[in-house]
Amino acid sequence: MAQARPSDDASFVSVWIDTHCHLDAAEFDADRGAVVAAARAAGVAMIVIPAIDAGNFGRVRALAHEHGLCYALGIHPMYTAGAGADDLAALRHALEANRDDPRLVAVGEIGLDHFIAGLDRQWQAEMFAAQLKLAREFDLPVLLHVRQAIDSVLKHLRTRPVQGGIAHAFNGSEQQAAAFVALGFKLGCGGALSFDRALRIRRVARAVPLEAIVMETDAPDIAPQWLYRTAEARAAGATMRNVSAELPRIGAVLAELRGIAPELLAAASTANAFAAMPRLARLEMEGATP
User: Fold this and answer.
1) CB within 8 A of 246, min separation 6: which ones?
2) CA-CA 20 to 30 A from 202: which of 59, 76, 248, 257?
3) pLDDT tens digit string along 218-243?
4) What is the pTM of this model?
5) What are phi and psi for residue 89, nearest 5 degrees?
6) Alpha carbons 103 and 72: distance in angstroms, whole number
7) What mean pLDDT, rounded, does the chain reach?
8) What is the pLDDT of residues 48-94, one digit of tens each?
């Protein structure tokens, strides 16, 4: 993977990293290879595939190796209701078995979700704490799911500090952003900021230090504004499926909001992704990326 650098050369091609894409999702079963090829053609040189439960640990690993990508292993808070001690044991085993796999770059997707009614918050917290402990044991950063639970997640991180990582789909305040940054985290920016009505997300995305930003799609979810299913789009049978190839256009929106060139954002966010996931940086240095 070529290092992204701002340049006056007209032939310079921006390089982006999609730090969060659920490439294993069923929405990609029909054309997964084409989706990866389109992302690379658009300038997305690397994609990180996070796991969501013990049942897809092997799947995300296999896809990362098949397509020359990276992956993370963890139990998503929305899937904790059906998870128990055996799942944590499976995660520990998977982390141990893949300890030397350069494509394993983080523990994730883990965290807290206080938005969905009916999820046991206490059990989520116990699962989150256990996974933070594993991240510390295996010296890996974490990919955080944080929905209406920012202060609770920050409390856990202060109690159980880890190597750092990414607060995925960050939508908190400037003060909360600063708290994550102080703990060594980067902030994931994606399709949500493309909406004119996303005033707080846009304000924070403009205000946080450039060194704190990484780019993501959360594909096939969090489609940007131009893919959103309006009534007209539904009538025409359009899809809301998000893909990694949309990342440069999302990045262009953020660059415009910040008043900088897209290639500068590409270079900075790529460097930030390397800082957030050191194994990803080593993979690039060793020439193991496409």
Assistant:
1) 191, 217, 219, 223, 224, 227
2) 76
3) 999 999 999 986 556 656 555 689 99
4) 0.93
5) -65, -40
6) 8
7) 92
8) 999 999 999 999 999 999 999 999 999 999 999 999 999 999 999 99
Supply the DSSP symbol for 26: G
Distance set, CA 142 to CA 65, 74, 136, 193, 289 (Å):
20, 9, 10, 23, 21
Polymer length in residues for the chain: 290
Dihedral sign, Cα of residue 177, residue 180, residue 185, residue 190 = negative
Q: Which fold has domain 16-285?
A: TIM Barrel (3.20.20)
Q: Residue 106: enclosing H or E segment and its boundaries?
A: strand 104-113
Residue indicated by tokens 């996974």: 131
Q: What is the pLDDT of residues 231-284, one digit of tens each?
A: 566 565 556 899 999 999 999 999 999 999 999 999 999 999 999 999 999 988
Spatial distance between the Cα atoms of 128 and 278, rounded to a whole number of angstroms: 22
**Residue ranges of domains in the chain:** 16-285
Token output for 174 = 């400037």
Strand bridging mode 213-215 / 70-73 = unpaired
- Max CA-CA distance within the chain? 55
Nearest-angstrom CA–CA distance, 252 and 229 = 21
